[in-house]
Amino acid sequence: MMATKTFRCPARHGYAVEVSPFVPQRLACAASQYYGITGSGSLFVLDQTETGMVLVRSWEWGDGLFDVAWSEANEHVLVAGGGDGSLQLWDSANQHAPLRVAKEHRQEVYSVDWSQTRGENLIVSGSWDRSVKVWDQDLSRSLTTLQGHEGVVYSTVWSPHIPGCIASASGDGTLRVWDVKAAACRLAVPAHKAEILSCDWCKYDQNLVATGSVDCSVCVWDLRNVRQPVSQLLGHTYAIRRVKFSPFSQTVLASCSYDFTVRFWDFGGSRPLLDTVEHHSEFVCGLDFNLHIPHQVVDCSWDETVKIYSPACLTAAARSAAS
Amino acid sequence: MERLKVISGHLLPRGPSEPLRVLRSCGSGSSVPGTGEEVVVVHGRRTAIGKAKRGSFKDTTPDELLSAVMSAVLADVGLPAARLGDVCVGNVLQPGAGALMARVAHFLSGFPETVPVYTVNRQCSSGLQALLNIAGAIRSGSIELGLACGVESMSLRSIGNPGDLSSRLVENDKARDCLVPMGITSENVAERFGVSREKQDAFALSSQLKAAQAQNSGRFDQEIVPVTVSVTDESGRESRLQVRKDEGIRTGTTLDGLSRLRPAFKPDGSTTAGNSSQVSDGAAAVLLGRRSAVEVLGLPVLAVLRGSAVVGVPPDLMGIGPAVAIPAALRQAGLSLDDIDVFEINEAFASQALYCVEKLGLPLEKVNPNGGAIALGHPLGCTGARQVVTLLNELRRRGRRAYGVVSMCIGTGMGAAAVFEFPGPQREEGGRVAGRT
To answer: Domains along chain A?
Structure first.
């Protein structure tokens, strides 16, 4: 296993990381001052080197930043969501002020995602104002506002398979699936009795969605039959902050938690927990798989670090899946 | 603080300290602003502590002492009394725990009739209990600002009539133990836990020395409210004098002198007048508020109440109270003994104070750095509030972010403790620090 690479951002507490879809060694991190409770925010663009990470670009924002997503159309562009309810479009080739700022949400924006289905180029945002908004890639104004959640929206993710399809997770305990063209909620799953802080689509099976909840469990759902989850993954001892499906393996996913750990799961096997990584000293909020470098994972934590590592369990899981 | 509430809501309570962990992790840098819901101490003052029956307050009614501190605290911060949501006064010996006396004191201080008041009696912890009661009312949202006080005149009232008790008391061991004189409980602790006469005397001497040093270097000057009173001497002559110094401190105390004192409660005992707390008169008042309300009014934040606990212990060993209450309060606050910089542990008797210090493994230099009740005196209802005033003044004097604990044993078998955080000098000024570095 390669050594872990660590980037320290003093006085900034990481909320989200995402690996660039274009540049294999590049990642973005949205971080906030004072644990995001108050103060300002920072957006970092980092490149990994052999032994660590270097800062390529960073910007300051007047409020905390809670999520970041790379553009799927332009390798320099990213969108971030802020505590002031704004979305900002940034250009990593340009040090100056954001390309665009869109302020429609009335409360914190906790989630941003850029659609991956080609030809679409839409951005989705989820906010504590309970709404989900869809935007064009210029952030000129929202195209649709999706209402229905009865609690704060924590997570909004485009389906990688079905155009115009979004999954959202909310404090109201439901996982919802939306059809953007019809501007309607297609499915509302009462997935947990507690708040759901994260959701993600399986990259291989268009019907599978994972949810991570305050009840400390990760559930995998088949949207064709939502009466009970396909799998319930237990092990975390505090709320789950983010879930991510592996880009390389159909049944592998990762979760990070307030219990300071990142856990890797294979829900296809009899013993789902593959490994627990305990290299943080505070809540772990950001998590992403590197889709260019198999088995490499990026995370960020309130302990002011961003880490890149390659857990052995992922290589082992790939080997056993192949055999 | 919406965001903090949301995140706190993500932490399923697994124990009382769990939700507070978020607050604590957010507070690990001294420049982090606190949540508006915290209970904060704005200010506190006390009178000097007079020797009962022979000292300067011997002819002073408790309402006068109480009125003096209540007025001083509000005048110091420029807060009109009308802003107070409630006032709670700790008192033990007055009839009905001084409920009428407290209302009279109100009006002597010129408080408007619209401000309510009540009194509380949990024996030696009453002054601290008053603070915990006001804190509770703030937390439950029924008030925004409150005054917690304590007062006792042991000159004018003695521990006497125990009240109307059932005759079944004699058949019930624990009930009977409630009538054990405090001095005997001290002997019980000394014998059961092996606290020798020598150690008790050494502890008593240390209390006297620390108090004398504090008094002489002027450490108490800021917290003491001078009170002008009348004193009538044996020949009936009345004079007016201003009292501004604690009277219990016996400079010139020596180990030798202490060792010659005869046991006061048991012929072959170890508890003497020299290693016991003194019978005294005094009052103290502490202004508390919800942080958001305090900041809106531009009032300073002197300290934050971080946790508290009241526990029960065997009545015949009541002195061990702090040894049980302090860990309970620390658990509630999410802190450990090592986090605490100063402990104010009431010295009801050297035997029990020492037992608690040793049981908890506390470094002696952290305990009562400015002396304790052995030197200063223990006006029952006042003590808890007095310890808070002295503790917070000491933390402020040291000038850096620190935690302190106030604790005492309680007659009939209880212990109480509260944990305070002094946020550091830059956080004392009123108003939120914007936090842009």
So the answer is: 38-43+60-284 (2.130.10.10)
